[in-house]
Amino acid sequence: MRSFWKLTATAILSLPCIALTAAAADPVPFRIVIKEARRQPAPGLHSFAHAVYDGKWLLVGGRTNGFHRTSDPESKFPSRYANRYLYVVDPVKDASWKVAIPDSIGASLRTTNAAHYQDGDVLYVIGGYGSKDDDDRPESYQTFPNVTAIRVPEVIKAITSGHQEEVAKNIVTAEDERMRVTGGELLKLGDQFYLCFGQNYDGIYKGGYTGKYTGEIRRFSISLKGDKPSIGNYVAFGDPQGAGPNSQYHRRDLVVTESIRPDGTLGITAYGGVFTKTAGAWVNPILIDQYASGKTTVAVDTSFEQKMSQYDCANLVMCDPTTKTMYTTFFGGISLYYYDAQGQLTLSNLNNFTPFINSITTQARSSDGSTVEVPQPPANSLPKLLGSNATFIPLETLSRCPGSHEVLDYSKLPKTSQVHLGYLYGGILATAPQASEFNPTFANSTIYDVFLERP
Which of 63, 96, 247, 410 is most buried, with most CB under 10 Å away? Predict the structure, then answer.
């Protein structure tokens, strides 16, 4: 078994490169291993919403082409590459089904980078960017103000049984201007949803032009009483230091996860995101907590600076309640740091600015609140430049921590040397660290098995 490697949380942004050395005591007692799955029934998609029920995946929205790039004279998000189908994928039985998104729902589910969250048997999809008229006129593009509720078991059953007419009956949508967000993330604590950051991009995408960042964390409840979802108990949390590009809240296209705090309570942590005032990536996590009294607190953790995978990417979250350690693993994506040809961890620069990477990195947050960042060495990386706008889908059979939707209980994993955790799927597949007309990108269709290995 190869040894593991350690990168401390000490601020090192001013250094051009970092040589990793073996840790005396590994803060991460495992490594993550990726293998191409034997069965491959999925379409090529990225930036989609998804839900899981009875071993099947429901895939909604997203795009079928690659990264939008920033310099093409044509539309960066051509409507012909918007996903027009609802897919059901069974990775075990090697089967997939699809139906066209019902006309009654319209273009609001043919979007990219919509926020989404599966709450029991209901998948909520909020916002997203795309063309409202299925053409490429500049005035057709917008960020949608929709909140949509999809009854997952019923829709999956309708699609797999060929009863397409039943699909629309189990999808309801409503418009609310407060939900006009793309590039944000949706999670839930208790009875309250949290729509974290993002932007409202109006019009056709242009390189160098940015939308209006929300600069907020929006808390609310969703009611399904009646025939449409409705937003209630709405509260917005802005930066007490002030809004604008200098604000830590000026973020979009980031990773936001559930996180178990050292006292065992469930919180939310926002990682990375873009763009800073100098067009870089954010490095300080933001901690969101809700208390029994109903109070919500938001705090920027300036004690830690994230080096890897700042852009929206697939992620795996686990907690060990015996040591009170929280593990957050990031799969590739777009990064502030990268491994160079000599195997040194190097700061993004003008020759390779925020590149696509294939690194797998785990942040370990200990019981005292301190964090270390542990990139796996290049020999233990993803097989390709994967991960951006992808998703990790854990096995339904694995135990979660109390109250959590997605945090796996590390202490209850099988005690074998290798444990199957779930699947890495979708996202942008890059052929080089920097995308260009000579280095194309694609929507990944390959499903990968994700394993945890212990030394």
Answer: 63
